[in-house]
Structures are given as structure tokens and as C-alpha cells.
């Protein structure tokens, strides 16, 4: 009996091109939404403070450059 992941993989592999395109677009949005939520959670909890402080310190000391 296939695992959930294996069943999903088989289902995706069997999608016709138009349905695969719809799934791909849905998944990109879904994944981005999850990523955004994680970043927001990490920022709110202070997990990113050390990184932000280091970046600001480098910027203020002239080690950063415009992109």
C-alpha cells in the first residue's frame, strides 16, 4: 500500500498537462503563503532579531551596498 506521499506523487504524475499547470500554480501560491506565515511568526517571536541587528550593523558601518 503506497504512503500518502507516494499516492500524491502518482496522482500528480498522471495529471494531464492543463491540470498539472493548475496544480503547479496552486502549489506555488500555497507554498508562498506557508513561507510568509512562517517568516511572520519567526519575526514576531524575535527569532530574526539577531539577523536583523547584524544586517543593520553592517549597513551602518558601510559594509553594505545598494543592489
Q: Could you provide a short overview of the structure?
A:
The chain has 67 residues and is an all-alpha fold. The protein is built from 3 helices and no strands.
What does this structure look like?
- This protein has 67 residues and is mostly helical.
- Helices cover 76% and strands 0% of the residues.
- The protein has three helices and no strands.
- It has helices at 4-13, 17-45, 49-60.
- It is elongated.
- 0% of the residues are buried.
- The model has no long low-confidence stretch (mean pLDDT 95).
Descriptive terms for the model:
67 residues, mainly alpha, 76% helix, elongated
Helix count from the secondary structure assignment:
3
Name the beta content range: under 5%
| Major β-sheet annotation | none
The counted number of beta strands is 0
Termini separation (Å)?
A: 51 Å
User: Compute the gyration radius: what is it?
Assistant: 20 Å
Shape: elongated
Poorly predicted parts? none
SSE order, one letter for each helix or strand: HHH
Amino acid at each position: 500500500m503506497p504512503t500518502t506521499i507516494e499516492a500524491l506523487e502518482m496522482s500528480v504524475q498522471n495529471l494531464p498537462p492543463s491540470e498539472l499547470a493548475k496544480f503547479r500554480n496552486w502549489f506555488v501560491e500555497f507554498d508562498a503563503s506557508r513561507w510568509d506565515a512562517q517568516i511572520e511568526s519567526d519575526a514576531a517571536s524575535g527569532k530574526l532579531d539577531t539577523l536583523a541587528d547584524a544586517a543593520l550593523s553592517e549597513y551602518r558601518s558601510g559594509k553594505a551596498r545598494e543592489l
